[in-house]
Amino acid sequence: MRAAVITFPGSNCDTDLQWALQQICGIPADLIPASQDSLAGYDAVFLPGGFSYGDYLRSGAIARFSPIMGAVKQFAAAGGYVIGICNGFQILTEAGLLPGALQWNTSLHFICAPATLTVVNTATAFSNQYTENQAITLPIAHGEGNYYADPVTLADLEAHHQVVFRYRENPNGSLNDIAGITNRAGNVLGMMPHPERRVEALLGGTDGQGVFNSLAHTVKEAAVHVAG
Amino acid sequence: MYKAKIYVNYKPSVLDPKAEAIKTALTRMDHQNVQDVLYGKYFELTLDGTDEAAVRDQVESICDQLLANVNMETYRFDLEAV
């Protein structure tokens, strides 16, 4: 498996993500500038956290028009795995790859704190190494993480089990305590908490490894399936 | 040439924490009669063009694609020849 991590102007979690993938989980990962327009040769693409284009207009609104996003859309449409974390989640909603939007936290505070989540769906490409309803603690660091979708979209998300992570104590006003969702096809994940910041005991825990290991497991199984 | 004056606001169903904070401040300032605060964005675009209908379509597409997130916001605009 080989992963691409996109660096937008203003991304600040790209090298952390590369470290978590490569040094901790053994997944080769390349940093790809947002000015490029190809993702050939990759099994998964990560959109990292940060403040792409200064969060001008709305977070993720400008990044969505970067040259690389055309390639990300094609990659996702072809069934490739796309993971957006924090600002990456915001970009995916702006690009229409995930439903809903991320609004200002109800407190209006930028919240940087550990959050305890429940893994509510372990039947996804990104969560199969967790156990159902497992409690995991991951850091959150956002001002706009308050998930909003209209009632029809929200009901649709729940009906199709697209919610992967929920907050145990809602920090930001997200509807249905949503911390992470997939698209209907299940190959695109967006989450506000930062798994890449919880991959070593030194950083306070290893609960984040499950996201990367789940994906590695999924890609490996698919390869065995194709070969077999 | 046309000038478009564009107003972007949250949909009524979206609770806007910033507008709520402004309302709370107004209440604290003794403006007890302020019932509601709408906090939005205002843009002015100046566009070359002679065909008003075409410019109107273009502004609509600019709003849909970039200036508003139609998942949570609505927009309206006035277009005038300048």
Automatic annotation (TrEMBL), chain A:
Its EC number is 6.3.5.3, 3.5.1.2. Pfam families: GATase_5. The active site is at C86, H194, E196. The keyword tRNA processing does not apply. One of its GO terms (biological process) is 'de novo' IMP biosynthetic process. InterPro entries: Class_I_gatase-like, PRibForGlyAmidine_synth_PurQ. It is found in: Cytoplasm. Keywords: ATP-binding, Cytoplasm, Glutamine amidotransferase, Hydrolase, Ligase, Nucleotide-binding, Purine biosynthesis. It comes from the Bacteria. GO terms for cellular component: cytoplasm. GO terms for molecular function: ATP binding; glutaminase activity; phosphoribosylformylglycinamidine synthase activity. Its main location: cytoplasm. PROSITE patterns: GATASE_TYPE_1 (PS51273). It catalyses: L-glutamine + H2O = L-glutamate + NH4(+); N(2)-formyl-N(1)-(5-phospho-beta-D-ribosyl)glycinamide + L-glutamine + ATP + H2O = 2-formamido-N(1)-(5-O-phospho-beta-D-ribosyl)acetamidine + L-glutamate + ADP + phosphate + H(+). The keyword Manganese does not apply. Pathway: Purine metabolism; IMP biosynthesis via de novo pathway; 5-amino-1-(5-phospho-D-ribosyl)imidazole from N(2)-formyl-N(1)-(5-phospho-D-ribosyl)glycinamide: step 1/2. HAMAP family: PurQ. NCBIfam families: FGAM_synth_I, PRK03619.1. Part of the FGAM synthase complex composed of 1 PurL, 1 PurQ and 2 PurS subunits. PANTHER family: PHOSPHORIBOSYLFORMYLGLYCINAMIDINE SYNTHASE SUBUNIT PURQ. Part of the phosphoribosylformylglycinamidine synthase complex involved in the purines biosynthetic pathway. Catalyzes the ATP-dependent conversion of formylglycinamide ribonucleotide (FGAR) and glutamine to yield formylglycinamidine ribonucleotide (FGAM) and glutamate. The FGAM synthase complex is composed of three subunits. PurQ produces an ammonia molecule by converting glutamine to glutamate. PurL transfers the ammonia molecule to FGAR to form FGAM in an ATP-dependent manner. This is Phosphoribosylformylglycinamidine synthase subunit PurQ. The gene is purQ.
From TrEMBL, chain B:
It is an enzyme of class 6 (ligase). It is found in: Cytoplasm. Belongs to the PurS family. Its main location: cytoplasm. Pfam families: PurS. This is Phosphoribosylformylglycinamidine synthase subunit PurS. One of its GO terms (biological process) is 'de novo' IMP biosynthetic process. Its EC number is 6.3.5.3. Pathway: Purine metabolism; IMP biosynthesis via de novo pathway; 5-amino-1-(5-phospho-D-ribosyl)imidazole from N(2)-formyl-N(1)-(5-phospho-D-ribosyl)glycinamide: step 1/2. Part of the FGAM synthase complex composed of 1 PurL, 1 PurQ and 2 PurS subunits. InterPro entries: PurS, PurS-like_sf. Part of the phosphoribosylformylglycinamidine synthase complex involved in the purines biosynthetic pathway. Catalyzes the ATP-dependent conversion of formylglycinamide ribonucleotide (FGAR) and glutamine to yield formylglycinamidine ribonucleotide (FGAM) and glutamate. The FGAM synthase complex is composed of three subunits. PurQ produces an ammonia molecule by converting glutamine to glutamate. PurL transfers the ammonia molecule to FGAR to form FGAM in an ATP-dependent manner. One of its GO terms (cellular component) is cytoplasm. It catalyses: N(2)-formyl-N(1)-(5-phospho-beta-D-ribosyl)glycinamide + L-glutamine + ATP + H2O = 2-formamido-N(1)-(5-O-phospho-beta-D-ribosyl)acetamidine + L-glutamate + ADP + phosphate + H(+). GO terms for molecular function: ATP binding; phosphoribosylformylglycinamidine synthase activity. SUPFAM superfamilies: PurS-like (SSF82697). Gene3D superfamilies: Phosphoribosylformylglycinamidine synthase subunit PurS (3.30.1280.10). Keywords: ATP-binding, Cytoplasm, Ligase, Nucleotide-binding, Purine biosynthesis.
